[in-house]
Amino acid sequence: MLLAANLPIRFVIVIPALVVESPVRGACALANELSKHFDVTVVSLKGGEAHWLLDAGVDYINLGPSKSPLMYALAYKKFITSVSLNFSLISISFCFSADFVNFLTKNNNIRISSIRGDLSSVYRSKFGILGKSLAWLQYKMISGLDFALIMTEDMRKKTISDGLTCDIYHMPNFLDEKRVVQYRQPLAERKSFRFVFVGSLISLKKPDVFIKAGLELALLHKNVELILVGAGPLENDLKKLVESLGGEDIVSFLGFVESPLEVVSTSDILVLPSLTEGVSRAVMEALFLGVPCIMRNIPGARDLIVPGVNGALFNNDDDLVDTMSSFLKNEYKQNRYESLLPLPFSQKKSVEGLLSLLNLNEGKND
Predict the structure, then answer these.
(1) Residues 230, 201 contacting (CB under 8 angstroms)
(2) Are 273 and 320 in contact (CB under 8 A)?
(3) Starting at the edge strand that comes first in sequence, how are the strands of the sheet with 59-62 ordered?
(4) In whole angstroms, what is the distance from residue 257 CA to residue 266 CA?
(5) d(CA 241, CA 12)
C-alpha cells in the first residue's frame, strides 16, 4: 500500500446515501474523526438530507439522484480522476453500491471496504434465496480491493468462509461520540422499570422475543415498561401479539425515530435479542451513554458485553425473561456520566488503529 510521497493525503468515504442508517452513521463518524488531521470528502451516490451527521471540516459531494449503477460508477471515476491530480487518495466504501463503484475505480489510490455485518445472513433475511448470491457478489467485489475492515475476529473467520480473499483487518465500529454524548443524563426517578428495543422490526432482530419475555416478566413485576423503537414489516404482527397477550398498557411502539438516543438515555436497560449482529450501533451508543445492555450470546455481542459490568448475555429465547428479571432484582444502578463502552470501540482508538494500519500516524496533513 504505497502513497505518493509528494502529495497530501485525502480520504474519500463512499456511501449509498446521506441518510440516518447505521452504516452511514459509522461512515460519517469516521469522516469526522479523520477530518481533524486530513482532508476528507464524503461522496454520496444517491443524495440524502442528513447533513447534520457531518462536521463542517468534511467536504461533501452528491453524485445523485436518478442515475443507473453504471452512471454512478462513471461519475465517481470522473471525480476520483480529478482529485487524484492533487492528492494521494484512500477510498473507503460502505455497503453494496459504494463497494461497486470503489471496485470499478482504480487510479493508484488505496481502496478499502468497511464490512459492518454478516452479509450472508443479512441479505438472506432481506432477499431470501437471492440474498446468498448478492453476498457472494459483494465479497467478490471487495476481494478486488486492497483490503477490508471487519469488526470482530469472528466476522473475519465468517467472511473468509463466505469467499472473501483480500487482506482482512480487525477494526471496531466507528461511533460519533460528540453527537452521542449530548444525550447522556442521569437516570430519572420513576415507578416503572423501562426496557427498550432499538432496531428494525424484522425476524432477524427478534422483537417478538423481547415482547414475550417482557410481558411474561410483567406478570410478576407490575412496574415493567417496554418500548420498541423502529419500523419494519413485522410491526402489525407485533401489535397483534401484544394485543393477544393483553400488553397494550405495557408495550409502546414509537416507530422510526431519526435519533433514538433520547429514548435510550431515559431507559434502564437496552435489550437486543438479534440472531446476528456485526457490532450493534444501538448497543455501542447505549453503552457510551452509560445504559447497560442485554444481548444474545452471539459473535459481536461477546466483544461488547462484559457480564456483570456493562450488561448480560443470554443463550436461548427462554433465558431472556430470567436475564431481564435479574436486573430488576439487583436494581442495577450505574453512573450515567461514565461510558460503559469497552475502550477498543472508542472513536479515537478505532481511527488510530486505521491510521496505524496505513502507516499514517506520523504523516498527518496538519
Answers:
(1) yes
(2) yes
(3) 59-62, 39-44, 9-15, 88-94, 110-114, 147-150, 167-170
(4) 15
(5) 46
pLDDT tens digit string along 5-64? Answer: 678 999 999 999 999 888 999 999 999 999 999 999 999 999 899 999 999 999 999 997
* Structure-block grid coordinates of residue 321: 425473561
Helix (H) or strand (E) holding 92: strand 88-94
User: How many Cβ atoms from other residues are within 10 Å of residue 22's Cβ?
Assistant: 19
User: Which residues make Cβ contacts (< 8 Å) with residue 220, sequence separation at least 6?
Assistant: 325
**CA–CA dist 138, 144 (Å, integer):** 10
Q: Which domains does the chain have, with CATH numbers?
A: 9-175+346-357 (3.40.50.2000), 179-343 (3.40.50.2000)
φ/ψ region of 313 (left if φ > 0, alpha if ψ in -120 to 50, else beta) reads beta
Euclidean distance between CA atoms 102 and 46, whole angstroms: 15
Q: Please tell me the pTM assigned to this model.
A: 0.89
Q: Indicate if the pLDDT at residue 316 is higher than 60.
A: yes
Given a contact cutoff of 8 angstroms between Cβ atoms, the answer to whether 16 and 98 are in contact is: yes
Is the pLDDT score of 85 beyond 70?
A: yes
Structure letter (DSSP) for residue 346? S
Q: Under a CB-based contact definition with an 8 Å cutoff, are residues 43 and 12 in contact? A: yes
All three cell numbers of 345, joined, read: 470501540
pLDDT surpasses 90 at 66: no
96-104 helix and 129-143 helix, angle to the nearest 10 degrees: 40
